[in-house]
Write a structure and sequence with these properties.
Chain lengths: 183, 213
């Protein structure tokens, strides 16, 4: 029978390396794929994974089991991702979107979205997301891919729930414009 | 003109955790607001489009690297509980005892010159003791001076310039001796009860006043 996250954490705190590795393997794919979508680069995504789990390991004693481990984990992931995005600043700012589109069209991927190969699909989604401002990119990631509620997202971004909803709506409109432009 | 409810309606309809009952509250508004209807129709397809993302496997990496390099902390409360009770309270008790000791030895003296804080005995001279000592000192000085003059008159009775010079030299020697005695007196005072600089200054100024012609 699989051990729960809390059991693995207790064992890791007691010095069990295998418990720690099991815990990491259970959650690393979510962090890695989040990194791929947000950072648009496998090396950066792996850097994010390592940064996140180093932070988790160092602060494991703080986890008291009052919330789910994944919720606590994503608080760390969110902070690390914000740091990385700020450092890399790979995507253009939202104000420049349409000028960028006119000057440098990115409609170089073949066919409609659902006909693309797996990697091309991911590439396109990642490209769309990378063209969003960091705050919108994060809210789409947390809402759509991590299925967090707006009540959970708002404190992570230190904004009111209504602001989170407005930001999400704006992000969807921007994404829709991009999808239509590249269809 | 844009509808202020659009962001909330879109966000709630794109939230998988929104129940049909929860979404019912927007039903009336949606029936009458053309803009919200259009926006909902337009944007509802975006999240499913994004969810076509195909999860990628994580490349192999050393998952236990941080176990070897970073130090893991056990929970603080547990570690605190492992200390014996006496070890937890010993620093507090020691601080308390030291504080009581210091304040029990502290002494505040208020005089005409102001106030002073000291530890142990009083920092200021007892006025009566000082007066007694100086009176005794003054009497002994007078007796000694009288004895010097009598001795000088016996030795240099003739009033010549030479004898006056010798008499002055003798007086100078006696004055130096007197200063040495006074220094010894000061040291004695310091060794006894006169512990503060302020008290010594009072004594010094008094003696200077007495010695100066």
């Amino acid at each position: 029978m699989d051990q729960t996250d809390n059991q693995l954490i207790d064992a890791a705190l007691a010095g069990s390396v295998s418990a720690w590795e099991t815990l990491v393997r259970r959650h690393e794919h979510r962090v890695y794929n989040l990194g791929l979508r947000l950072l648009h680069n496998p090396d950066d995504a792996l850097d994010l994974v390592q940064d996140v789990f180093l932070g988790v390991y160092r602060n494991l004693y703080r986890f008291r089991g009052e919330s789910q481990f994944s919720t606590w984990l994503f608080r760390i992931v969110h902070n690390k991702a914000v740091d990385l995005i700020r450092r890399r600043q790979s995507g253009p700012e939202i104000e420049n979107w349409f000028e960028e589109d006119a000057a440098e069209p990115v409609n170089d991927l073949p066919g409609p979205l659902d006909a693309c190969l797996e990697t091309e699909m991911n590439e396109r989604i990642s490209q769309f997301l990378s063209r969003l401002p960091p705050a919108q990119r994060l809210i789409v990631e947390l809402k759509v891919f991590q299925s967090l509620t707006f009540e959970e997202i708002a404190p992570l971004q230190d904004i009111p729930v209504n602001t989170a909803k407005t930001r999400f709506y704006t992000a969807l409109k921007n994404l829709k414009s991009m999808m239509e432009a590249h269809a | 003109m844009s509808c202020p409810n659009t962001p909330e309606i879109i966000a709630d309809h794109c939230d998988p955790s929104s129940t049909p009952e929860f979404l019912q509250r927007h039903k009336t508004h949606l029936e009458h607001c053309l803009q919200c209807q259009q926006e909902l129709l337009l944007l509802k397809s975006v999240p499913p489009g994004l969810l076509r993302w195909q999860p990628q496997p994580v490349p192999d990496w050393d998952r236990s690297a941080m176990v070897k390099t970073a130090s893991i902390r056990k929970s603080l409360p547990n570690r605190a509980r492992t200390l014996p009770l006496i070890a937890q309270w010993l620093p507090v008790a020691a601080s308390l005892v030291l504080t009581v000791f210091v304040f029990s030895q502290a002494r505040l003296d208020v005089t005409e010159q102001g106030w002073s804080l000291s530890f142990g005995t009083s920092s200021t001279l007892n006025a009566q003791q000082l007066n007694d000592y100086l009176t005794a000192y003054s009497q002994s000085q007078q007796e000694e001076t009288r004895a010097w003059v009598q001795t000088a008159l016996k030795i240099h009775g003739e009033s010549t310039a030479d004898s006056v010079y010798q008499w002055m030299t003798y007086m100078e020697q006696q004055r130096e001796l007197d200063v040495q005695r006074m220094e010894a007196g000061f040291e004695q005072l310091l060794d006894r009860d006169f512990q503060t600089v302020d008290s010594v200054r009072q004594l010094a100024s008094y003696v200077m006043y007495q010695v100066a012609p």
